[in-house]
Amino acid sequence: MVYLQVSFIIMLLIISSIVPVLVEAVRRRRRIVVWYKVEVDRRRMEYFEKRNQSRGPYLLRLLLDSSWP
């Protein structure tokens, strides 16, 4: 009977020490996910801006080249 109580107390101690770590890990992961989404959006915007900048003069050059015989 005493053995059961001791093991129960030890289990409670282990669980109570693990729970805050898990909570912090979940919070941090959520923060990382948000940061990752923001970073991906920023990279995508930069990529499209660069692509649009490089495409503009390219189309203009194509038009000018095709207009010259």
SSE string: H
Judged by helices, strands and strand pairing, the structural class is mainly alpha
- Mean of residue pLDDT? 81
The total count of strands amounts to 0
Q: What is the CA-atom radius of gyration, in angstroms? A: 30 Å
Count of runs of 4 or more consecutive helical residues: 1
Shape: rod-shaped
Q: How far apart, in Å, are the first and last alpha carbons? A: 100 Å
Main pleated sheet: none
Strand content: under 5%
Low-confidence stretches: none
Quick description:
By secondary structure, the chain is mostly helical. Helix content is 96%, strand content 0%.
Describe this structure in words.
The protein has 69 residues and is mainly alpha-helical. It has one helix and no strands. It has one helix spanning 2-67. The mean pLDDT is 81.
Key structural traits:
single chain, 69 residues, 96% helix
Secondary structure: elements and pairs:
Blueprint: H1 2-67
